[in-house]
Amino acid sequence: MTLTDPQLDDLIKAIGLKKPSGGQRKPIAHGTVNGAKQHRWRKEPLCYPCRIAEAAGQRDRAAARKGVTK
Ligand SMILES: [Zn+2]
Q1: What is residue 30's DSSP assignment?
Q2: What gap in Å lies between CA 16 and CA 63, rounded to an integer?
Q3: pTM over 0.85
Q4: 3 in helix, strand or coil?
């Protein structure tokens, strides 16, 4: 059986594999401030966990400016 490219893409996504010769380097660390940065670097919309993490990171920085420590 021969798979077309879209079918192959679906299969790769379904089994969670990365394309061997994909242009993307590191996988995004979703749910972290770094992950949010990676989304921005790739000019793609942030996923929900990354938006939450970024918002939390900004809250932490704002708290740090006020002198609140954890
Ligand atoms: Zn993400």
Answers
A1: T
A2: 38
A3: no
A4: coil
Q: How far apart are CA 48 and CA 63, in angstroms?
A: 23
- The rounded Å distance from CA 13 to ligand 1 centre is 16
Place of tokens 């938006």: 51
Judge whether 36 and 43 are in contact, CB under 8 Å: no
**Cβ contact 32:50 at 8 Å:** yes
Which pLDDT tens digit goes with each residue over 45-65?
A: 999 999 999 999 988 888 898
Token code pair at residue 45: 């919309």
Please give the distance, rounded to the nearest whole angstrom, from the Cα atom of residue 51 to the centre of ligand 1: 7
Ligand 1 centroid distance, CA of 46 (Å): 6
Question: Cα(1) to centroid of ligand 1, in Å?
Answer: 35
User: Would you kindly state where each structural domain of the chain is located, as residue ranges?
Assistant: 25-70
